[in-house]
Amino acid sequence: MPRFNPLSLLTLGIALSLPAHADEGMWLPAQMPELAKPLRNAGFKGRPAALADLTAAPLSAVVRVGGGTGSFVSDAGLLLTNHHVAYGVIQYNSKPDNNLIDNGFIAADRAAELPANPDYRVLVTVGFDKVTDTVLGAATGKRGREYFDAVDRASKAIIAECEQEAGMRCSVANMYYGTDFYRIKQLELRDVRLVYAPPRAIGNYGDEIDNFMWPRHTGDFTLLRAYVGPDGKPAAYSPDNVPYRAPAHLRLAGDGPKAGDFAMLAGYPGVTYRHRTAAEFDEQVNWTLPQRVAVFDQLIGVIESAGAADAEARTRYAAQLQSLKNGSKRAAGELEGLRRSHAVQVRAEDERGMLETAAAAKERAGIDALAAALAEGSAVRERELLLGLFGSQTQLMRTAITLERLRLESAKPDAERESGYQARDHALIEGILKQVQRRYAPAVEKQLLTVLLARYQQLPDAQRLPEFDVAFGRTPAALKKSLDALYAGTTLGDEAARLSRFAAAREGRPLAADPLIDLAIRLVPAQLRLEQERKTRDGEQLRLRPAYMRALFAWRQQQGRALYPDANGTLRISYGKVDGFSPRDGVIYTPVTTVDGIVEKNTGAVPFDAPRPLLDAIANGDFAGTADPALKTQTVNFLTNLDTTGGNSGSPVLNARGELIGLNFDSNWEAVSASWMFDPRYKRAVHVDLRYMRWLMAKVYPAPHLLQEMQAD
Amino acid sequence: MPRFNPLSLLTLGIALSLPAHADEGMWLPAQMPELAKPLRNAGFKGRPAALADLTAAPLSAVVRVGGGTGSFVSDAGLLLTNHHVAYGVIQYNSKPDNNLIDNGFIAADRAAELPANPDYRVLVTVGFDKVTDTVLGAATGKRGREYFDAVDRASKAIIAECEQEAGMRCSVANMYYGTDFYRIKQLELRDVRLVYAPPRAIGNYGDEIDNFMWPRHTGDFTLLRAYVGPDGKPAAYSPDNVPYRAPAHLRLAGDGPKAGDFAMLAGYPGVTYRHRTAAEFDEQVNWTLPQRVAVFDQLIGVIESAGAADAEARTRYAAQLQSLKNGSKRAAGELEGLRRSHAVQVRAEDERGMLETAAAAKERAGIDALAAALAEGSAVRERELLLGLFGSQTQLMRTAITLERLRLESAKPDAERESGYQARDHALIEGILKQVQRRYAPAVEKQLLTVLLARYQQLPDAQRLPEFDVAFGRTPAALKKSLDALYAGTTLGDEAARLSRFAAAREGRPLAADPLIDLAIRLVPAQLRLEQERKTRDGEQLRLRPAYMRALFAWRQQQGRALYPDANGTLRISYGKVDGFSPRDGVIYTPVTTVDGIVEKNTGAVPFDAPRPLLDAIANGDFAGTADPALKTQTVNFLTNLDTTGGNSGSPVLNARGELIGLNFDSNWEAVSASWMFDPRYKRAVHVDLRYMRWLMAKVYPAPHLLQEMQAD
């Protein structure tokens, strides 16, 4: 089997050594042997070399499942992940007379295990191979859009060839921002079954109120099982299928975490921006986040005023309001965190140091060209933000633009259509068109557009588009007149009017006249032009970032620090320790919570409505075999300083001996800015203490056969 | 000078000894010598005997000021208390062009000190004498209302005689619920001046948001100075007055508090209920508090629905809504705390133990009679709650009842009128009548009355009053008809209509007809009857509680615990230590906060708008002489487990050597139930660290002459 080879590092002649920030790092498995010394210093008792191959034990036990991570915990395909990662499976199996979300589920035996929704997948990595030369071969010498397209074409060809093998799902991962490319080959297990789920009031205790808010008290775990055909190959659900024999599985630890203990975690973190340039950090903190908060808050104000006077508008815009509020809160939290960490200054000083190295001098032309390419994007950032919201925050306007775009794309062969407008997307588009009615009030949409377009009208000439200027004028009065006329005349508020045009659009036929459709016909060409410009800029960044990364490698080497690629949905390892923190002056968060907190939070009302059997078991106090020896009670969740981000949900947390002690499921609010900067004072990850799972499965909602299966050798 | 003699204890033959709950206790100064051993064990380095006399040094340095406590900190009458205790004085001296609340104030010299509002007082205790025999002499053999009146008459006679001496203010304090009575003689200093106040954004940093919420970061202190006439006697303000030579003053410590340090505090706690009966605990937890929350929440619902549809109603009821919300939150917090502490069970078990003692057997008749008297009150508790709110939560209804009551009282000689309706109260009543307009909307008042009277209509016959049944009927329909007619017909919504009737009422003349006035004429006799019944019940409790207290003394003796009287506004001492706590699972509050927290909380907007000079000084980091040696930064506030309640504001906090280290100003939210039960896990007091005051006065808003005065020997 081809082995991962950390060529990007060796090629550059860089020796890995102790990172200065010992707890930061989403390491590639291949980097682990080089981290042997810091790993041992941190307390790891295993062989670092055994962590190098993500296609062999123990890492091959760690798989993609749903939108997150999972790990095999028996030799018969038993799979541990989060309740929220398996939520769709539980929901899919709920019936009016037996709501498994509320009630939880225990399969008494394998025959009782319930098939997941047919599109639910478990992906087991079986190949991880460097394909940089193949991917970049055709791109060399090209620029901008051509560079982008060459990389895209080469990647698609690699994937197509790889997927010739039955049962395989393949992808190409881009490491260090276009420096290296890897072909990932994954076994696609399609028969996944629900084995054990706690009731929602355990698996999602605290819900949105506690989300991000330490201390947590949530039993966010579920057990699934992967099945394959009798021939051992991936297969759709069939009663004849047999449990998948995983190439490796993790073993439950007999004890649990305590402050200071070594901990490590493997999973599929989604995206981070840690190695972006100082200019990008500055833009994020001083423009993007404050601007997002300001525009979102203005839109929130429009919806709230409308809702105060009109109960129907309040109902129709409830979801959009919630989403804008979450977006604003999240952006404000990220901004607060980045400011608290002085992220702009820290990154700027770091980059200044880098630019003084000899390596940076050699790369100077590329680095300067990258800065120029980024500046081109920044020059149109306000327009990009406003036009994005112009589509995403409206219903009728988006309908008109979607229909016209669909008409244009449908004139092409399906394979050449823009993703999102292919035949496979038609059902989704139709569903969205049908929902418009329930999410729309004409007066509110006009006010939202007035906010966005009034801002747009203030943009400098270079950012504005002639098509928009003609359509909406250059003054508030012209804007009002134009919107009044559009919304007085459009019939797209009627479902039939939308669906009849959808029927035409999907066949590439002309759309019946309507003021908003006529507008869309004039605006979509501008939209297409902007898409081209965006791909050109993306291509230039893809071409130029490797120069910056080479300089950064050299700088980190000079500092004696290793460099991990920013997260990109590929398997990473993080190591560190069980650790509390001080969120603010006068307050300390301890790293391990107990069942006392469940009782304290319990109100009897959702989301703090712990089930009676749980409350009784806590009151009864039989924690024999799972109690923490020092706390002398049952623990629930714990904190580590491990480096995680979205996608790490369900990641197994291991102790110094590589045994399973926890299940990652959340971060703390203070770490919401960690996608840009890891601040060791505040970055923590939140895990289910598996002693809590063992206790629940032993004493509260018993499943002794599953405990036995997990604890068997 | 007559000395306090803990006769109530000696009479009962009880030896004081180590209390089982070492940190609980609002001790009488006379109890301190008996607490010498536990005091020493806790770390106290001084002479416990020196704390026995509240009319001699050092306790004579601790005085009543405004509604709280203060202490002399120089031999020239300099007085340290809270910013919030001196708030009225600062406000009184603010001018449109110099708002001292916003700007703070530093008197450059004594001539620049600003006179307080003329009714502001400092009271220095000069006598504390047992008068039990005199007070109870005339009451012996009486019961109910007669017992109450006899105690009241005897107390008033003692006060009148005591106040014959010029410059004295006297009172009679009731200890151990009618077991003992003391005459308190206090020098009434009437010329008080403002010397130093920090800006509001320091003295009240965090305001209502941080109130009760540890961690705190508030510089809640102010310096005043007491003056007397050139003859050394109390006098009204005069430029010829001279600083008062206090009989004692406290000295500032050179260092500050750290976790575990001994701490003690003296002050005037207002009221606690710790020695109430188990039945009263049960009623508080299982009836009073839940009922208060339920009724308040229903009234809140009425006002919020009205406000959602009517902006004017929203404005007019804003203050009432805020007050109901605070009341509901406070009651809910107290309930939560008492439940968390299992207060009902703990007190019930304790009482069961007591009832098994020989002493309780001797007192059995009295204890049983007390239980019966309390049950009489409980039998009408719902009516009492509803009729209280009937007056306090309405404007026109209250106006009518006040006017009719005033008319009746004004027919008597002034001295015989019920307190609140005497000539001295007329200005206040007139002010309230003038404010009605701004706090009233007829539709809302009708709905509030509907809520209260609909509950009233559900009461059993024995609780209802014929006058109310006649006025409002027995059915919802009758109630609606009656309220509709009353509010359609009344003219009391007009200020002139209210004030013309006020002019008549204050002279005892008949009031011009009006539907609500006519109603009040029918209801006030019922109100007067209820008042009589209440005084009768109060008299019975006053007569009977001493039996219960004697049994409790005996039980505590058997347990080896001392017993302090419940708080009653007299000087008490508490001792314990500097101590953080865990408010809930997973969270620890550290006992000392630092200036870091000021910066963290600062938003630039009220109430988190730290002044620029403070922020600059923090950034500058010159904490020489006041920094905490371990934290290596400037501290701000600290926590102790000292036993406090309302009235302890401004209490000096002393270290083991009796030096001043802090100034009490707040409690933590988790301790809101401590007026009923001291739970050592949660009961904390919040203090200004005087190192923060010293730093502010040295480096931020300098007043070196005052620091020198406080630090002089």
Automatic annotation (TrEMBL), chains A, B:
Its lineage reads: Bacteria, Pseudomonadati, Pseudomonadota, Gammaproteobacteria, Lysobacterales
Official protein name in the record: Dipeptidyl-peptidase
Record key words, sorted = Aminopeptidase, Hydrolase, Protease, Serine protease, Signal
Its biological purpose: Catalyzes the removal of dipeptides from the N-terminus of oligopeptides.
Q: Which Gene3D superfamilies match?
A: Trypsin-like serine proteases
Keyword Transcription regulation in annotation? no
* One Pfam family this sequence matches: Peptidase_S46
Q: Which organism is it from?
A: Pseudoxanthomonas wuyuanensis
- Could you tell me the EC number(s) of this protein? 3.4.14.-
Broad EC category: hydrolase
The text of the family note is:
Belongs to the peptidase S46 family.
Q: Please list which residues make up the signal peptide.
A: 1-22
Query: Which domain of life does the protein's organism represent?
Result: Bacteria
